[in-house]
């Protein structure tokens, strides 16, 4: 049995259109996922440009007298929708203390002995 050439063409076009739409949908979802997970340093820079956090040099000037020991590491993290600088310091006795400083105000939030 022969099928109508117009129907075959229509079926092929319909199949191609459905596949194209699926590919566009998947590509859009992948791009949205990539945009939603910007690297941390880009998020931090954007937060600083918006005035949500102070630059590290300003935080260091505010906290210099309260940070004791030798600096091992500094991290900037978002904790509960709040930017927090984490300073990891080794003390003369070998203990490591983590100081947590609010990124927008420079106020000390917490400190803990790292074990």
Q: What kind of oligomer do you see?
A: single chain
Please count the helical segments: 3
Q: What value does the Rg take, in angstroms? A: 27 Å
| Helix-strand category | alpha+beta
**Overall average residue pLDDT:** 81
* Count of beta strands: 4
CATH architecture name of the largest domain: Roll
End-to-end span in angstroms?
80 Å
Low-pLDDT segments:
none
Task: Tell me what the structure shows.
The protein is of the alpha+beta class and 115 residues long. It folds into 2 domains: 1-37; 40-114, Nuclear Transport Factor 2, Chain: A (Roll), CATH 3.10.450. Helix content is 43%, strand content 29%. The protein has 3 helices and 4 strands, in the order H-H-H-E-E-E-E. A hairpin with a 2-residue loop joins strand 1 and strand 2. The radius of gyration is 27 Å and the shape is elongated. The model has no long low-confidence stretch (mean pLDDT 81).
Brief write-up:
With 115 residues, the chain is α+β, with helices and mostly antiparallel strands. It has helices spanning 5-36, 40-49, 56-63, and strands at residues 70-79, 82-90, 96-102, 108-114. It has two domains: 1-37; 40-114, Nuclear Transport Factor 2, Chain: A (Roll), CATH 3.10.450.40.
